[in-house]
Design brief:
heterotetramer, A: Butyryl-CoA Dehydrogenase, subunit A, domain 2, Butyryl-CoA Dehydrogenase, subunit A, domain 3, 3 domains, 10 strands, C: 399 residues, alpha+beta, Butyryl-CoA Dehydrogenase, subunit A, domain 2, four-stranded antiparallel sheet, AcylCo_DH/oxidase_C (chains C, D), Acyl-CoA dehydrogenase family protein (chains C, D), oxidoreductase (chains C, D), Acyl-CoA_Oxase/DH_mid-dom (chains C, D)
Amino acid sequence: MDFDLTDEQRMLSDSIRRLVADAYDDFEKRKTYRAQPRGYADANWQKFAEMGLLGLPFSEDDGGFGGGPVETMLVCEQFGRGLVVEPYLATVVLGGGLLKRAGSAEQRAELIPAIAEGSLTLAFAHQERQARHDLFDIATTATRNADGYVLNGAKGVVLHGDSADRLIVSARTAGARRDRDGISLFLLDPATAGVIRRGYATQDGLRAAEVVLENVSVPASALLGAEGAALPLIEQVVDEAQAAICAEALGAMEVLRDLTVDYLKQRTQFGQPIGNFQALQHRAADMLVASEQARSMAMYAAMMVQEADPAARRVALSAAKALVAKNADQLGKDAIQLHGGIAVTEEYKAGHYFKRLTMLAGLFGDVDHHLRVVVAAGGLPEAA
Amino acid sequence: MDFDLTDEQRMLSDSIRRLVADAYDDFEKRKTYRAQPRGYADANWQKFAEMGLLGLPFSEDDGGFGGGPVETMLVCEQFGRGLVVEPYLATVVLGGGLLKRAGSAEQRAELIPAIAEGSLTLAFAHQERQARHDLFDIATTATRNADGYVLNGAKGVVLHGDSADRLIVSARTAGARRDRDGISLFLLDPATAGVIRRGYATQDGLRAAEVVLENVSVPASALLGAEGAALPLIEQVVDEAQAAICAEALGAMEVLRDLTVDYLKQRTQFGQPIGNFQALQHRAADMLVASEQARSMAMYAAMMVQEADPAARRVALSAAKALVAKNADQLGKDAIQLHGGIAVTEEYKAGHYFKRLTMLAGLFGDVDHHLRVVVAAGGLPEAA
Amino acid sequence: MDLRYTPDEIAFRDDLRKFFRSEIPLPIRRKVSEGRALARDDYVTSQRILHAKGLATPNWPVQWGGQDWTPVQRYIYVEELQAAAVPQPLGFNVNMVGPVIATFGSEAQKQRFLPSTANLDIWWAQGFSEPGAGSDLASLKTTARREGEEFIVNGQKTWTTLGQYADWIFCLVRTDSTVKKQAGISFILIDMKTPGITLRPIITIDGGHEVNEVFFDEVRVPAENLVGELNKGWDYAKFLLSNERIGIARIGMTKERLARVKRLAQETPAGEGMVWDDPDFRRRLAWSEIELKALEITQMRVVAAQRGKASDKPDPSSSILKIKGSEIQQASTQLLVDVAGPYAMPRPDRDEEGLNLPSVGPDWADAAAPLFFNYRKVSIYGGSNEIQRNIIAKAFLGL
Amino acid sequence: MDLRYTPDEIAFRDDLRKFFRSEIPLPIRRKVSEGRALARDDYVTSQRILHAKGLATPNWPVQWGGQDWTPVQRYIYVEELQAAAVPQPLGFNVNMVGPVIATFGSEAQKQRFLPSTANLDIWWAQGFSEPGAGSDLASLKTTARREGEEFIVNGQKTWTTLGQYADWIFCLVRTDSTVKKQAGISFILIDMKTPGITLRPIITIDGGHEVNEVFFDEVRVPAENLVGELNKGWDYAKFLLSNERIGIARIGMTKERLARVKRLAQETPAGEGMVWDDPDFRRRLAWSEIELKALEITQMRVVAAQRGKASDKPDPSSSILKIKGSEIQQASTQLLVDVAGPYAMPRPDRDEEGLNLPSVGPDWADAAAPLFFNYRKVSIYGGSNEIQRNIIAKAFLGL
């Protein structure tokens, strides 16, 4: 048992913290990033590339740096602290996670170096409106023809789907809508005829898109991984994304907590700092308990995402997400309440952290959904 | 809309309050009542009879006083305030409720005057171990023969079943264990051959019994109500009992709340009354909110128990019980916590209120059970 | 004891219900129901329709357009108004400044202001809170110094709701700083067009413009605009805030929202069925309904207890209504977000009416998260829930 | 960062696991598992078996029978002990008075007391709390006045756990009432057989006799029984209380109880199936498991952070462990009551060992409610959860 980071990991974490602090120190900057055409700052993205963050989880053979879940946790925790708007989750964790595992040598050679150097972004067009949080519920079809496949369907709330240079699209090559088998992945240039994207801002200041596929023809070489067998891989990569989301939420929770405690010290009412009032002190103490428990579960997520047994992995990740999301929700509400009116203004940071936490809590399944996964499994997996 | 009590109701409530205050003012007295052979004080029971409480809900034709649910609420609220141990719920609300509705003229004439004058008590032997809270889950059988019926089965945690002069037993005359049809009621002298009772104290200081029926022969005249059609009646009477339980819990909650507030004023630590500490003040405020909401739902229960549509009645009573039980649980725990160590001692009153509230909360279904009833119905009935 | 309405009360209720649903334009009521921002005209249109029928200012003295209703009738009125998603008559006009002028104002002030206030010809804003005076309202710093027949006002107010539409503002100002803080405050009426007043919008986290800061720089106010006596403003403010009792819990509105949540859940697909088929969602919805039912009866009890009591006495049970009412309101907006699911996330650009261009998800879904964010305020404003717990501990429990 | 155990740690754990389960008698472990009261002999038997193997006092200095373990090993030891439902070595002996004597006692005191304390030849009780000194421990009033070579002790202690079995009691007593309250307290050892000591049982709401009041009336204590310096007792008490860090959350014990709850739910009929088939029950159980898993890792982080730090430094993160640990412990006993259902109600008479004569419901069910009642104490004792929140606010957050 060992809770220490390696020297390299510590250096990595410190560098990202400095980078994020520099790029996001003034909250007004974040507004300008959001106003850029892709909804984020290309300059930041280039800095991430220079620091090696964009190639982090890829193998060295593919042109990456061989980082694991702990490294991803460190990156995302710092991004959460800054409310970073760049498409790291979409491109590196989700897109990259699928590509590195399912991609052929050619696909990897074509795309991974470009991702690592910051010249190519990805988005994972998977979720469909009727599916809610069931990853296997896919109605989009990919029909085989002589030249390749023809895709038809609609994908919703695709994170950073409006600006991504390539989409990874899930579609059925076989089976009925809620079958576990028959789902395939395709690499798609969004400029392909029949791809219709509608981009929009999300409530937390990031970007997403609705993606409609109307008779989109792709060559056979667009297939990513084995035909019809993509679901286990999708589940694994979404679990990795959950671990990243837990870390990101943790970073945001800790900043929001500290912001609140500082405010309690500064704001005076009835002739004294409101932090003197015991009822508020106890709420602040509960915020610390909530964030410490969330930290523990973010670490658990980073550990268990490497678990070999997929069933145990999924239950553990659902447990982590359920706890982090529940605590993020409560901590966020307490932070707003303890601040009072100022926290519901757009000018002040706290509300933005609350909004981001609210959206992270619901991403890839809300508390109820993940708790049901744990319940259905009969509880948490026993430790080895 | 009218929230006032009639003059008669106000007088009734005041008289019971005085009676209970007198009989239960010194908490040591309650211990002596519990130590008596029947687990309660015959003298108190006689006083209840003299005041007309034991005949209250029966019609004047049957020798009662024609009281309704509001009167029962007033009685039970005061009994809750005193943690009264006498078998009012078992004899008057449950047993009496069944008897007055299902009893033949002969049965009513034989028993109701005796109940009203305090010379006869009842218990309702219905619940079975496997059934948990499903009122229709009855395995006990009543087999018809030439002379009447033969009963076989086992009933569990029969309230005051150890001392009751007559048992009302539910048993199947038809159907399978979990059928809604085929349940009948029988009036039974516990001295009948084959009736085995094991009495015991309950955690909250009252009494109950396990009742085993081994080839118990009863005459056909023991049948109470129509053969095989008892369930709707049982459901109605159990709903009436829930309304009474809500009122009783309310009385206990208010006393426990006041006891706690008094303690906060008296107990000093760190050189001041602990009631000066804001965190404790806020918990006390939450106790008031909880008990006021419970009062509202106890009133709702008293109103809705008269609802003509059984489905709407059942949902409303489940809603009332769910809220009262949840608030009783939280208020009870807060009361103990705010008191500290003294509240977990047998000598001090608070713990006894907490135990009684815990048991009342679970009686005829816990919070989960009743919430499920509401959920299954799609929500609360619309008001007229 | 009978919690049911009498036949007369039912008739009264049915009349109101019919009037609200037939006379107030549906597009306005739909915005209220969906929790979207109303335009100024929506408020004015709705209030004038109500006023024409005597339904805008029922709590006012009868001679100024009030109704001689029982407490139960007043309660039914508020519940039905909310249940029909009718915009409430502007609170600053009808619950705040109107009753203050009617009770403490001069005859000239009554003549000048009450009719136009009732008809929303004048739109009032509230100038109470200041940046340093939130829960501790009496510590306010905005001053009014007397110069001849004028007061000169300097300072800053904040959280001025819908101030961007206001014609006039009623303010608490400090007119004596040598006495203890509550004793040096006056209540004064200020025309928003007076030179020296600047209004700055505050954008809230839901993206809406609902509140404002108002700056006063040497603003000259005729002395005749002082209401009542000099330095008695704190009493008038307390009187004013106590008028919030009925309706503070917004039970009718939450009932309407929960019914809507239920309807939307029944028609929103999720996996094999609808959101409605999710037992966890249903359980949380049921709890809200149950808590709301209890609160409704608690409110009726408060209403019933008011009968025969002077209506200017503050009632500490309003703290219970405020705490529970805000909790259930917030829970109801969270349920709405849950129904929207992933489609709570899109935040498309809006046209000038604040509507989607066009919707990304279901046409109601993009309003869910902003409403949820916005409703964090209900446990903060009007005396935060922490302040309410202080009041209960002190006023009810004697701690 | 790796939350998994090393192979060495796994071997260490497996050795302990095997020893605990094979050497400590099953009837004793079963009582622990069911939450029933242990007899004095059960404690003695278990502790002597542990002590013979060097497992009763691992935190003591090695020369007095301690183990040179890493923090992770100490953590594993506590978890495995609890998971096997082994009675913890008597805390008053091994975590409290033992370390105080070993650190601050005279050589004569060490020789006289430590071996017999480790082997439970002497049973110690704790004499800290008083009726007027609960959360505010330093306000204690029991006095010890010096007369020649003796102290004369007068006063009353309370909440003296298992005092009915005690041979000796260690007390905080006031030896100087002229200085500020913390500065006038001494730490003294008293033979329970000394004339003038009276013990009065306190029966708790679960019906158990676990705690006592102890009265001191002119009790003569040899001056050599003073530990360390006069008037330094408050420092020793703080040192003693800080030894509670590991194991305060009782994670191993709760894990064992939740596993038992699960097993019982799977075999307890309820309607059409078993309690286990009730999704609401399962949901609450799953929450407890999840919270417990998070707390387990929180505790490991605390353990890891201790490496290389002096072990006599109080660690405020123990407040987090205390708050969450007690909440989950209480939730676990509530789940047990839920499984018992109606059979949580019977409270049959007991024989002298505290067992049913015979059970009314399932043989474990009558212990469920008493355990639930009894466990209300865990958020009260050892510094109530309110005190813990004060500590977090002040020590961590600087409020």
